[in-house]
Automatic annotation (TrEMBL):
The keyword Transmembrane does not apply. This is 3-keto-5-aminohexanoate cleavage protein. Its cofactor is Zn(2+). The keyword Transferase applies. It comes from the Bacteria. Gene3D superfamilies: Aldolase class I. Coiled coil: none annotated. Keywords: Metal-binding, Transferase, Zinc.
Length: 277
């Protein structure tokens, strides 16, 4: 696990998500053109991986196969970023559509380790689905990022690896998603508890805090030598009353915070080595 301050930092940008509407946040990248332009800006600012949710022509979340394939292709052509497709989608997406995300041949996919209350909704990840998606990622040679919304999910990751072995590529990278109403809180104490439970197979981990937990989680993760995920999927304000205008602002802020910890951003090639791609 990365603990030395001198080590490079993986910055993942999650620019869109599935929850915020374009009407509420016109600066959210929802078209393919906006997404590619955002990805390019964020790569220049220091991101090495992109966690992608896509939208349809009306800016609504979709898992449309053609759009997913076109998105992966456009991001590979337009950037060097590691392309991670969300298999979480939106809380309304059927499980079978979420499995089909891997047909679009991303480098990486998110893989959430259990069901979580998600505000007033339920983000459904029944165990048989988790196992099927994991085995599919191994078969399709897609590197999973284990998403941990709660401490029980850390233990579920251990159970998954014990049962089915290591991910494709042999590395184990996970991401603490903290501060979701219904999941673990976005606090240093929760992060320390989660890290203490990580299986020994874990080779790297990042963290992200939703909303007002963004900065506390980022600072706690940095103090532990970890990697960061940032972006408008998780954070819409830079400070109270100051909206994020571009995802690259959040990447730039992460780079500045990392610099204080004497760490420089990984390039996409560094990230590929870290993730076993
Ligand atoms: N949109 C959330 C319901 C993921 O991308 O894998 C799920 C989510 C996790 O964002
Ligand atoms: Zn996501």
């Amino acid at each position: 696990m990365p603990t030395k301050p001198s080590e490079k930092i993986l910055i993942t940008v999650a620019p869109t998500g599935a929850e915020t509407t374009k009407a509420d946040c016109p600066q959210l990248p929802t078209t393919l053109e906006e997404l590619v332009a955002t990805a390019q800006e964020c790569e220049s600012a220091g991101a090495a991986m992109i966690h992608v949710h896509i939208r349809d022509a009306e800016h609504r979340p979709t898992l449309d196969q053609t759009r997913l394939r076109d998105t992966v292709q456009a991001l590979h052509e337009g950037t060097g970023l590691v392309v991670q497709l969300s298999t979480g989608g939106s809380v309304h997406d059927p499980l079978e559509d979420r499995l089909k995300v891997l047909d679009a041949k991303p480098d990486s996919c998110s893989l959430t380790m259990g069901t979580t209350n998600f505000g007033d909704d339920v983000f459904s990840n029944p165990w048989p689905f988790v196992c099927e998606l994991y085995q599919l990622s191994q078969e399709r040679q897609v590197v999973p990022e284990f998403e941990l919304f709660d401490l029980g999910q850390v233990h579920a990751m251990r159970r998954l690896i014990d049962t089915y072995g290591l991910p494709y590529g042999g590395k184990v990278h996970c991401d603490f998603v903290m501060g979701v109403p219904g999941g673990m809180p976005g606090t240093a104490a929760a992060l320390v508890a989660g890290v203490g439970m990580l299986p020994e197979e874990v080779t790297s981990w990042s963290a992200t805090g939703i909303g007002r937990t963004t900065l506390p989680v980022a600072l706690a993760a940095l103090s532990m030598g970890a990697h960061l995920r940032v972006g408008m999927e998780d954070t819409l304000t830079l400070a109270r009353g100051v909206p994020v205008e571009r995802n690259s602002q959040l990447v730039e802020r992460a780079v500045s915070l990392a610099a204080l910890a004497q760490r420089t951003p990984m390039t996409p090639s560094d990230a590929r080595v870290l993730l076993g791609l």
